[in-house]
């Protein structure tokens, strides 16, 4: 790699990294501050409806973020078709959500999530890393400003509306992506397998990231969900570095550049971060969130998950770049099945500690499967 390419790569990674670090910090402050204002049960209820919106938007996303990133990177003009399909299904999903729960705020949030994912996939695929930084930071700032503003004006009921409005500026890239070429449905059949497998992958991922919260409420209650939701917010900060690297290496894996040194850095960094979460965070959390007593034990266990989650992202990027998602689907099925099963058994017996163990177990099994599969394939080839 020439010096100029190294410099450009460093600038691109810095653009993603700085924006994600600052953005995650802003959003983390928002949710942490809300946790100090709300009782544990109300905090849990808020995340319950956000999870419903999150699950509904994943159902709508025929064109997942990773699919759009890969095809835009490869200069295949399929984005307008995927935009149309995802937004069309999203409109139907929004109607269903409102009809079941009578929550117009959650319905709006579904569309906001769809617009966000489509736009980010397009931005990353175009390697517009500076634009990514600007738009991500704008969204995070709007989350803080509108979220707290709506809370103080309208109460808890205004928070989800504020979250939905924070994504409004991403509509610009939906228009840009839609206008770059004509809608050509003939592009779908040759790529249907990759699109469908990635949709399945995303759907199974939502089972783990959203359905868990929906299941927890009727079985274990809103108070446990409140503690678990706060632990997830803290874990999102711990996994930040791995997420930054994943977004960057995916575009390069899709272009045939494996970035092995960066992947090794991500792995060893995850070990350091996990140790920090296990040893230091339990001393800090009670000082800021005395009401959330269950969060301390949960995050101490969940910190371990940074390591297998990072390993899983490294192998996922490689497979997505090769447009080989079948292995990822199997891995995701293993993750989801083990997670939901463990929640039902361990959660009922051990409460939030059981849920935290289920969280780590599912990621570990998924990462182990992906690593084993990759090893066997490379051994067979050699």
Describe this structure in words.
- The structure is a single chain.
- It is built from 17 helices and no strands.
- It has 382 residues and is mostly helical.
- The protein is globular.
- It starts with a helix and ends with a helix.
Low-confidence stretches: none
Task: Count the E strands.
Answer: 0
Estimated share of beta-strand residues: under 5%
Indicate the structural class.
Answer: mainly alpha
Brief digest:
With 382 residues, this protein is an all-alpha fold. 84% of the residues lie in helices and 0% in strands.
What topology emerges from the helices and strands here?
Elements: H1 3-37, H2 40-60, H3 65-73, H4 79-101, H5 104-125, H6 129-154, H7 159-165, H8 171-179, H9 192-220, H10 222-238, H11 240-254, H12 260-279, H13 281-288, H14 293-302, H15 306-321, H16 326-350, H17 352-381
Helix pairs in contact: 1-6, 1-10, 1-11, 2-4, 2-5, 2-9, 2-10, 3-5, 4-5, 4-8, 5-7, 5-8, 6-7, 9-10, 9-16, 10-14, 11-12, 11-15, 12-15, 13-14, 14-17, 15-17, 16-17
């Amino acid at each position: 790699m020439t010096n100029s390419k190294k410099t450009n790569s460093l600038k691109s990674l810095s653009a993603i990294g700085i924006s994600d670090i600052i953005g995650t910090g802003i959003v983390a402050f928002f949710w942490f501050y809300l946790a100090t204002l709300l009782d544990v049960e109300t905090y849990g209820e808020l995340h319950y409806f956000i999870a419903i919106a999150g699950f509904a938007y994943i159902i709508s996303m025929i064109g997942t973020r990773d699919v759009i990133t890969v095809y835009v990177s490869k200069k295949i003009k399929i984005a307008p078709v995927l935009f149309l399909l995802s937004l069309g299904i999203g409109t139907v999903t929004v109607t269903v959500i409102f009809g079941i729960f009578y929550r117009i705020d959650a319905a709006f949030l579904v569309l906001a999530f769809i617009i966000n994912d489509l736009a980010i996939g397009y931005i990353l695929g175009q390697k517009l890393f500076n634009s990514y930084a600007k738009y991500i930071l704008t969204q995070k700032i709007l989350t803080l400003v509108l979220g707290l503003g709506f809370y103080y004006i309208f109460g808890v009921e205004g928070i989800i509306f504020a979250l939905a409005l924070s994504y409004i500026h991403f509509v610009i890239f939906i228009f840009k992506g839609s206008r770059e070429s004509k809608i050509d449905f003939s592009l779908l059949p040759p790529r249907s397998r990759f699109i469908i497998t990635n949709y399945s992958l995303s759907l199974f991922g939502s089972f783990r990231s959203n359905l868990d919260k929906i299941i927890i409420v009727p079985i274990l209650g809103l108070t446990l969900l409140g503690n678990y939701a706060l632990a997830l917010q803290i874990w999102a900060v711990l996994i930040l570095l791995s997420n930054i690297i994943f977004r960057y290496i995916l575009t390069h894996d899709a272009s045939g550049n494996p970035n092995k040194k960066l992947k090794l850095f991500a792995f060893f960094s995850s070990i350091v971060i996990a140790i920090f979460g296990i040893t230091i965070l339990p001393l800090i959390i009670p000082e800021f969130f005395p009401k959330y007593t269950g969060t301390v034990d949960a995050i101490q266990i969940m910190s371990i998950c940074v390591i297998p989650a990072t390993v899983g992202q490294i192998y996922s990027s490689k497979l997505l770049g090769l447009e080989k998602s079948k292995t990822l689907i199997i891995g995701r099925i293993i993750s989801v099945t083990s997670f939901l099963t463990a929640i039902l058994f361990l959660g009922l017996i051990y409460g939030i500690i059981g849920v935290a163990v289920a969280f780590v177990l599912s990621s570990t099994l998924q990462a182990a499967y992906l690593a084993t599969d990759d090893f066997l394939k490379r051994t067979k080839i050699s």
